[in-house]
Design a protein that fits this description.
The complex is a heterodimer of chains A (463) and B (304). By secondary structure, chain A is an alpha/beta fold. Chain A is built from 18 helices and 15 strands. The two termini of chain B are 42 Å apart. Classes of the chains: A alpha/beta (463), B mainly alpha (304).
Chain lengths: 463, 304
């Protein structure tokens, strides 16, 4: 009798403890959801504290002194750009109405619109207002053209190439390390600029470049450009803000063991860039043109870096969560991640270090076998049109491609801050491009390590 | 229905089909076997053949597309490069550890549920074991990440996750995290077969063992375990193969620092280097086939 009642009590105890575990899982799931989901809070929360900083940094926006070059790329500026949107919106820059999109679609293309378009895009390039209601350039596009926008986010250029090879998408926002592979592979085709009125307004510095054209024929609509930045926790680096990539490659910093690295073979170029500045005897002149000895040196540096790394991020929300949680104190980042994390209260900042930076100059390309070519043409024209391009440039934190966008940004200084038309600024920004056996820096006396080997080396390094 | 069908009979067209199959027995057999054979041959064996074939193609270094040139380079890289073999060894170690941990936890749990708990509690406990399977896989992965997050001097929430804030200690985002999370995820798949096996074990055998003077440990070793081997083997197939193939949870709970076989295949495929990825895929295939053959010897498939 007593044993059986004891058994019953044990059963109840076990059952209730299991129920507790289940309940705990439930609540954890909820907290996980909040960390995993991208920020939804309005970026304006971070803005007021920072509104003064950019005023100082923008004033001397020159290009000669190295000390100044980091300032414009800093994160204060974009946070400040959010301020007018939140605080002055009703009075100042009004939310554009249907007539204020500064875009007239090509009538012929519009007549053939298929009703939908399937895009592969970088995070932050196709915003429908779900992250921040003030940043929505998908809804107006859908209203104007009747093309429903379906987006698949690509986390790396390699992933985008792979997705485009599947043939299921109409177009892609390709960086320079994807464009050449897509062109050579026949996955994308040249564009007809006659159907793209916005093309005329694109900065000349972005047109007919090696990564978006073949023999003078454009293979896509320039989207904008920017630099990969060094992000750091301002509390951890309270004594002195870092201004060198050395923070990520040498020990003895507050961020040791909490460094966040972009998990892609293209990151090898970041190591090469650092070596270019710190070990001139290696003779690196372009981080994408590495002969075997230079390549080995970069890999050795990355191998040594492993001890400092706390995170290899592939999905941008993972880095955002780690920056907010404080488990990452320094790393390589995109401006949009910094903006999102700051909006959630992370104490971080970002700079373009003195060594320069890797970066991107992106191009919207149309698939060779696009199922919805007209909607894709409309999208390419729309995203490079003055208003939409201004929106995406401010949201992502990059320089717009359309020269007329500069007059439409909510921060009138946006184009100056991001050096949209200042070619001198971009000389130490090395846009992502695909390494090939023929050295891209023009050397003919040696063979360079092709990107397939970069991939293998990265996989081995990470193994 | 407009007209009444005869008792036990069918409507007119169905009766015609019925008659057709009765007259041609072989036709009936063919109709019955075609879908599963199609599934097995076309979907399964043919795609395996394609996989092995794909591993032999050379990659065009410019467009990153497979060419039709044949090469054994990929297979050689996948099977002889020590860096990659190292990942395989690590993955097998993780899968084996997870399996053993699941076994250690599942045995007493299943024993309690089937032999000690009251019949009314039994049903509830089984539901409790199955309950986590209702939650999304990703949700559980990120839940573990949230629980394991270490405290940080600089974060928004400086106390860290559940473990760090309540117990003051967390294994952090490392190998232990992978093993913990995978053990949690796949535990039900071990508990259920063992529970089923124990259910079939007559309680009289335990009493008889006791009557013959065996202590509990001896009964466990000499009576229960031998009879449970097929169930354990069946459960271990689930935990082992699921752990070996997982790549999302290891990435999530280690912040990408630890790479297992699945991560290697994923990153190679996305590189994109399809041929090499296909070559890597032969690794888990071989391991699982070997494992299945071994488990078949132990009689695992009688317990499924």
């Amino acid at each position: 009798m007593t044993t059986s009642s004891k058994r019953a009590r044990w059963g109840v105890a076990l059952l209730s403890s299991l129920a507790l575990v289940a309940a705990a899982c439930g609540s954890d799931a909820k907290s996980a959801a909040t960390t995993a989901v991208p920020a939804t809070a309005a970026p304006t929360t971070a803005a007021p504290a920072d509104t003064q900083a950019p005023a100082d940094t923008q004033a001397p926006a020159g290009t000669e002194a190295p000390a100044e070059t980091e300032a414009p790329a800093g994160t204060e500026a974009p946070a400040a750009t959010d301020a007018p949107a939140g605080t002055d919106a009703p009075a100042g820059t009004e939310v554009p109405g249907a007539t204020d999109y500064h875009w007239t679609p090509d009538a012929g293309v519009l007549a053939g619109a298929e009703g939908q378009v399937n895009l592969i895009a970088w995070a932050g390039y196709v915003e429908d207002g779900s992250n921040d209601a003030a940043y929505d350039w998908v809804t107006p596009f859908q209203d104007l053209t009747g093309c429903k926008v379906n987006t698949k986010l690509g986390n790396t250029s390699d992933e985008m190439v792979q997705l485009m090879q599947s043939g299921e998408y109409d177009g892609v926002s390709a960086s320079g390390d994807a464009t050449n592979r897509l062109i050579v592979g026949g996955d994308v085709v040249a564009i007809d600029t006659a159907k793209l009125p916005s093309y005329a307004d694109v900065f000349d510095g972005l047109k007919l470049k090696p990564w978006n054209s073949v023999d003078g024929k454009p293979f896509g609509m320039p989207h904008g450009r920017g630099a990969n930045l060094l992000v750091y926790n301002t509390e951890a680096f309270a004594e002195s803000a870092p201004d060198s990539w050395g923070v990520l490659f040498t020990s003895g910093n507050p961020s040791d063991g909490a460094v966040s690295v972009y998990d892609s073979p293209i990151y090898i170029a970041d190591a090469a860039l650092y070596l270019m500045a710190t070990q001139p005897d290696l003779g690196i002149t372009n981080p994408y043109a590495l002969d075997q000895a230079q390549f080995d040196a970069a890999i050795a540096l990355l191998d040594q870096q492993k001890a400092l790394v706390g995170q290899y991020w592939g999905v941008y929300t993972d880095q955002q969560a780690a920056l907010e949680g404080g488990t990452v104190l320094a790393g390589t980042t995109w401006q949009v991640i910094v903006n999102l994390a700051k909006a959630n209260g992370a104490t971080i900042d970002a700079v373009k270090p003195v060594e320069g930076a890797t970066g991107w100059s992106d191009t919207w390309m149309i698939a060779a076998k696009a199922a919805n070519p007209n909607c894709m043409y409309l999208w390419m024209d729309w995203i490079a049109s003055p208003w939409a391009n201004a929106m995406v440039a401010e949201w992502f934190g990059e320089a717009p491609a359309n020269s007329k966008s500069c007059g439409l940004t909510s921060d009138p200084e946006h184009c100056a801050t991001y050096h949209a038309d200042d070619e001198a600024f971009w000389t130490d920004v090395w846009y992502w491009q695909t390494a090939t056996e023929e050295c891209v820096d023009g050397r003919t006396d040696t063979k360079c390590v092709p990107y397939t080997e970069w991939v293998n080396a990265w996989n081995k390094l990470r193994a | 229905m407009s007209e009444r069908t005869p008792v036990g009979g069918h409507s007119a067209p169905l009766r015609g089909v019925n008659r057709l199959f009765r007259r041609h027995r072989r036709l009936g057999l063919a109709a019955l076997l075609t879908p599963p054979v199609f599934w097995l041959v076309v979907i399964y064996i043919a795609s395996l053949g394609l996989l092995i074939g794909a591993a032999m193609f050379r990659l065009d270094p410019r467009s990153h597309k497979p060419t039709t040139e044949l090469t054994t380079e990929n297979l050689r890289t996948a099977f002889t490069d020590w860096d990659f073999v190292n990942v395989v060894v690590r993955s097998v170690f993780v899968a084996a550890t997870v399996t053993v941990l699941c076994l250690v936890i599942a045995l007493p749990m299943a024993f309690y549920i089937s032999k000690i708990a009251k019949p009314w509690a039994r049903r509830g406990l089984i539901v409790a074991v199955l309950m986590p399977l209702w939650a999304g896989y990703l949700v559980k992965g990120y839940a573990w990440k949230a629980m394991l997050r270490p405290a940080s001097k600089f974060g928004i929430d400086k106390d860290g996750g559940f473990l760090a804030s309540v117990f003051g200690w967390t294994p952090g985002f490392g190998m232990v995290a992978v093993i913990l999370a995978l053990t949690y995820l796949w535990l039900p798949y071990m508990v259920l077969p063992i529970y089923a096996g124990l259910d079939r074990l007559p309680p009289s055998l335990l009493d008889a063992s006791g009557d013959l003077g065996a202590r509990p440990l001896r009964t466990f070793r000499s009576v229960i375990v031998p009879m449970l081997v097929p169930s354990i083997a069946a459960g271990s197939i689930f935990t082992f193969s699921l752990s070996l193939g997982d790549y999302i949870v290891p990435k999530v709970v280690t912040e990408g620092k630890i790479r297992l076989l699945g991560n290697l295949i994923e990153s190679t495929l996305l590189a994109p280097n399809q041929p090499l990825a296909a070559a890597f895929t032969l690794w888990p295939l071989m391991i699982i086939i070997t494992y299945l053959i071994g488990m078949k010897r132990l009689g695992a498939f009688e317990s499924l």
